[in-house]
Design goal:
Elements: H1 3-13, H2 20-28, E1 38-42, E2 49-53, H3 58-64, E3 70-74, E4 89-93, H4 96-106, E5 114-117, H5 123-132, E6 137-141, H6 144-156, E7 162-165, E8 177-182, H7 191-195, E9 197-207, E10 217-223, E11 229-236, E12 264-268, H8 280-289, E13 293-299, E14 311-317, E15 323-328, E16 335-340, H9 345-358, E17 367-371, E18 377-381
Parallel strand pairs: 5-6, 5-8, 6-7, 8-9
Antiparallel strand pairs: 1-2, 3-4, 9-10, 10-11, 11-17, 12-16, 13-14, 14-15, 15-16, 17-18
Helix pairs in contact: 1-2, 2-5, 8-9
GO molecular function, one term: methyltransferase activity
Keywords: Cytoplasm, Methyltransferase, S-adenosyl-L-methionine, Transferase
Pfam family, one: PCMT
Length: 394
């Protein structure tokens, strides 16, 4: 059984593939041809990423037949951890079911011209070429080494799209395009993507409104006659960040100094555990209304019976201007707290929570985004006329 047939069988048996045209594309493309000589997998004991040679490790061959993503690069191609291991995945061969789901949401027609942001290994690009013809596909990749490997992979499988090495958020020549498909997550939708499309053009992209809080969701936006774009959250989409948008890989200790001059001590009515609430709708609202933050939460030691259920929660501004600390206890608030810097992050979180509650605790599928032609971005619930605005920032 060919690699394409193997993946198609897995996806069709799960009901993932609904569009016969994309089914034919998956059948025709050899996914194995886009797997590099070495892939990377996280070590449970260390959290680091270890190399797995394709031709020497049986796990790689098992993964090839499964609906899983494969990490193809760590630390931007320069593994920085001990023993040749890496800290952070920076490029991957995406999970086939997610690839197909995004392509189907893209809703292409014969003759459509697609701008893809994030070539990666080239597999997704090959599917686009199979469906639309290589002459209708332009793909942008920021990493020159990744782009070179993708070009080789594509050529070896008979596809010759227009490949560009560059910043995926920057303007791209050759438009207008009918569709923009991003395989990297963004915090804000680049204005260049809207400018690449005419009225009726579609953008499909993973979107992460706030680092550390919202796992990426999938947005589908349609450009209107004014050049603005509107659309809803249509699903999950766990992807790496566009390099221009991703935060530094720094822990809370890089931002929090409890011994710094000017640290204020007191209490807060804000429940510190709100920042760890996994409700997907809340995570999007929080990330949008309390931007550029991260957090760290530490549970009391399991053998500390006097502190059972307690936790220390840090929230910090990634710009390094402000941080807060809250001591959660099951007894309820007010909670012991510390604060440093101009932003009162506990107040911002409380205001965001109040907005979300007043809107009826919307699920993620009720949320949408409007992006103005200049890139200004507005979150809304149920329709563009119902903006999600916090009194702290709007």
């Amino acid at each position: 059984m060919t690699a394409g047939a193997r993946i198609a069988r897995v996806l069709s048996s799960r009901g993932v593939i609904q569009d016969p045209a994309w089914h034919r594309a998956v059948l025709s493309v050899d996914r194995d041809a886009f797997v590099p000589d070495v892939v990377w997998a996280e070590e449970p004991s260390t959290g680091l990423y270890a190399p797995y040679p394709r031709d020497a490790d049986p796990d790689v061959h098992r993964w090839l037949g499964e609906d899983v993503s494969l990490v193809t690069q760590v630390d931007d191609g320069h593994p920085a951890a001990a023993g040749g291991r890496g800290y952070t995945p920076t490029s991957s061969l995406s999970q086939p079911s997610l690839v197909v789901a995004m392509l189907q949401v893209l809703d292409v027609e014969d003759g459509h011209r697609v701008l893809e942001v994030g070539t990666g290994s080239g597999y997704n690009t090959a599917l686009l070429c199979s469906r639309l013809g290589a002459g209708n596909v332009t793909s942008v990749e920021v990493d020159a080494d990744v782009a070179a490997d993708a070009e080789k992979n594509l050529a070896a499988t008979g596809y010759t799209p227009h490949l560009i090495v560059g910043d995926g958020a920057a303007p791209v020549a050759g438009g207008p395009y009918d569709r923009v498909l991003s395989t990297v997550a963004v915090q804000t939708i680049p204005a260049a993507w809207l400018q690449a499309l005419g009225p009726g053009g579609v953008i499909v992209t993973p979107w992460t409104p706030g680092p550390g809080f919202a796992s990426s969701v999938l947005l589908r936006l349609i450009v209107d006659e004014t050049g603005d774009a509107h659309g809803r959250v249509v699903g999950d989409a766990a992807f790496m960040m566009l390099r221009a948008h991703r935060p530094d890989r720094l822990g809370y200790g890089a931002f929090v100094d409890e011994d710094a001059p000017g640290v204020a001590e007191g209490t807060t009515a804000t429940n510190p555990r709100w920042v760890t609430d996994p409700h997907p709708g809340w995570k999007v609202v929080l990330g949008h209304l309390v931007p550029h933050i991260g957090y760290a939460s530490y549970e009391a030691a399991p053998d500390n019976t006097t502190a059972a259920g307690e936790a220390t929660v840090y929230v910090f501004d990634r710009a390094g201007t402000s941080w807060v600390l809250g001591e959660y206890t099951p007894a309820g608030g007010p909670y012991e707290a510390k604060r440093h810097g101009p932003r009162d992050l506990w107040a911002e979180i409380a205001a965001a929570r109040d907005v979300w509650e007043r809107l009826g605790r919307p699920r993620r599928d009720r949320l949408g985004v409007t992006v103005a032609a200049d890139g200004d971005q507005t979150l809304w619930v149920d329709g563009p006329g119902n903006s999600v605005i916090s009194p702290c920032n709007g």
